[in-house]
Amino acid sequence: MEAEQAILAELRNMDSHEALTPVHSHDIGADEKHRIVPSHMFLKHKFDVDSGAYVRTKARLVAQGNRQRPDTYGDTSSKMVNILIVFVLLKVMSALDLDAATFDITGAYLNAPRRHPESLFMRLVPALTSLWLTLHPDHAQYVHRGSLYLRVNKAIYGLRNASFEFHIYLASFLLSSGYVRS
Predict the structure, then answer these.
(1) CA 119 from chain center: how many Å?
(2) What ranges do the domains of the chain cover?
(3) Which pTM does this prediction carry?
């Protein structure tokens, strides 16, 4: 039951970011069928770092991007921070007795819109389709052979270019906030 609640929370997260839009399978043209990727749901059990006690179950809906054509997207790599820079910053912070903090962006990739001009679709497996329909009973009209077909609007985890799309989104946000490239 807790797994189901975690999955529903992940589907609500997708909803709140408008990551997916239902489509009729017959509206996906013959020339677009190769752009349908299957979905997969990962479940992870979280435990308290100190006590080792179970805390909760977390779900993550991913697209099986390995089914995407690699030649469609060109460069999909995102920039990585140089680890040497991180160590230098930590050393300077230590010398100046400064504090450091980290944070998590919930559904980070879901903030980044897909910028690729070709439409991409995801097929929810029947078990996930059933759970989706508990949130959106009106989407039953889009179900075909037990599966729901959805247009992918955001950089869903698992897509070949998701990290690249998120990098572009984050970089433009930071630049518009006054940061400069080094």
Answers:
(1) 17
(2) 2-99+113-176
(3) 0.81
